[in-house]
Amino acid sequence: MEPPADGIDLEIVETLGERKRRFTELSDAVLVLPGGIGSLDEAFEAMTARQLGLTTAKVVFLSIGGFWEPLKVLLDHLRHSGFVAEDRQFEFPEDVATALDLVEAGIGS
Questions:
Q1: For a tag site, which of 45, 55, 63, 64 has the least CB within 10 Å?
Q2: Residue pLDDT, tens place only, 63-99
C-alpha cells in the first residue's frame, strides 16, 4: 500500500457502508472520472444523498470523449419517465477545466 500524497489525510474504516457514510459527510462536491462499477456506485450514492437532503455536494461526471453519454441518456430517460425530479440536473462536461469550474460553482449550493 502506498502512502497518501502530501496534504491528504488517510482515514481507515471498517466497512464499505461506513466508507460511503464518511464519503457523504466529507464531500463538498463529487467529480466522477471515467471508471467502472465502483465509480458508478459512489456517484449514485452521492446523487441519492443529495436527493434525500443528506448532502449539498454537486455531482459532476467528467465525460471525456463522451464516456458518460450512455449514462446521461439513461438519467434523461428516468427524468422524462417521472422517476427523477425535473430540478435534478446532472452535469456531463467533456473537459477538465469546465468540470472543475462546475465543481467549484457547486460547492455549498
A1: 64
A2: 999 999 999 999 999 999 999 887 777 899 999 999 9
**Which own/partner pairs from 33-42 qualify as long-range (CB within 8 Å, at least 24 positions apart)?**
33/62, 34/62, 34/63, 34/64, 34/67, 34/68, 40/71
Could you tell me the sign of the dihedral formed by the alpha carbons of 101, 11, 20, 39, in that order? positive
pTM of the model: 0.85
Write the DSSP string, 50-85.
Answer: HHTTS---EEEE--GGGTTHHHHHHHHHHHHTTSS-
Round the average pLDDT of the chain to a whole number and report it. 90
CA of residue 12 relative to chain centroid, distance: 21
Res. 36: pLDDT tops 80: yes
What does the alpha-carbon distance between residue 102 and residue 58 come to, in Å, rounded to a whole number? 8
Dihedral sign (CA 53, 61, 21, 23): negative
